[in-house]
Amino acid sequence: MIKWILILLVVAAVAGLLGFNSVSGAALTGAKVLIGIVLILFLLVLFGVIAIAA
Fold this sequence. Notes:
Layout: H1 2-18, H2 21-46
C-alpha cells in the first residue's frame, strides 16, 4: 500500500508541474485517503486490536 501512496504522490507532482491541476488534485486526494487507511491500520496493530499472523 505504501507503494501506491508513493506512485500517487509522484503522479500528483508531475501533473502539477505540467499544469494538470484536476489530475494532480485527484491523485493527491487518493494518496491522502491511503495514508489515512495505513495510519488507522498501524494504530490498530499497535494497540493490539487486530493481530497480524506471522
